[in-house]
Amino acid sequence: xxxxxxxxxxxxxxxxxxxxxxxxxxxxxxxxxxxxxxxxxxxxxxxxxxxxxxxxxxxxxxxxxxxxxxxxxxxxxxxxxxxxxxxxxxxxxxxxxxxxxxxxxxxxxxxxxxxxxxxxxxxxxxxxxxxxxxxxxxxxxxxxxxxxxxxxxxxxxxxxxxxxxxxxxxxxxxxxxxxxxxxxxxxxxxxxxxxxxxxxxxxxxxxxxxxxxxxxxxxxxxxxxxxxxxxxxxxxxxxxxxxxxxxxxxxxxxxxxxxxxxxxxxxxxxxxxxxxxxxxxxxxxxxxxxxxxxxxxxxxxxxxxxxxxxxxx
Length: 313
What we know:
Layout: H1 2-40, H2 51-62, H3 73-81, H4 89-116, H5 119-131, H6 133-138, H7 145-160, H8 164-177, H9 182-196, H10 201-222, H11 231-240, H12 250-253, H13 260-273, H14 275-289, H15 302-312
Helix pairs in contact: 1-4, 1-5, 2-3, 4-5, 4-7, 7-8, 8-10, 11-13, 13-14
């Protein structure tokens, strides 16, 4: 009797595995279709406030120049798509966003399989991300969020598979797109140092070397060793930011603030001199990030606000 039961279990395993694979394909197909729809078949815009700067920096790269404002990782991707046939770079970028978004979902599925050792948990995580409104909505914007998430997910999956050189390169690319992502790579390197009492040289060098090349590229073109040059601007905007209320002319009002260090000093001076106002500003910023208000330009409707808030929860 037990032999028959074991045989049945053995025969059922391929069937269960096939069902999981079919479900995986269905979820990924639905995710792709949802992202194609929101990108091409709605009246929603694709150009964000920052998109023009990204395209301007991409054009500079194509002309052999270098603009040290936003990190040039995303502009570099735009520049590469500009080589594709036809004058359809924004459309190519939307298709690339969709491909990267769907690939990211698959990476998350693989990561969950490794971490939880359970296909069903991985499929559940995949299904949630596939239908999450914020994740679908991000794909239509020609901004760096989708690309940086793609490289971060790829980096972590490769790290879990002990492909440290390729993982480090992906972490470096994520940092080249959004500089703050360097902290994730640093945390993993520090974790390994404490956990295994040794430095992961392959991962560390694979992160550092590409970024060193980027910094040298920037220095050659601008005279400044940097990965990005918009830190001063962001810090100055943060001084006045209170939810959707941001003084976009603050930089022009304070031409004396010329360096990132001076901007940081001004930020903390504001916090010390106006602690109550500073605390209120941070609370309003957090409220805005949760998606509850109507957004900075007042275009977020009630339904969108409810969906975004529930998604964040």
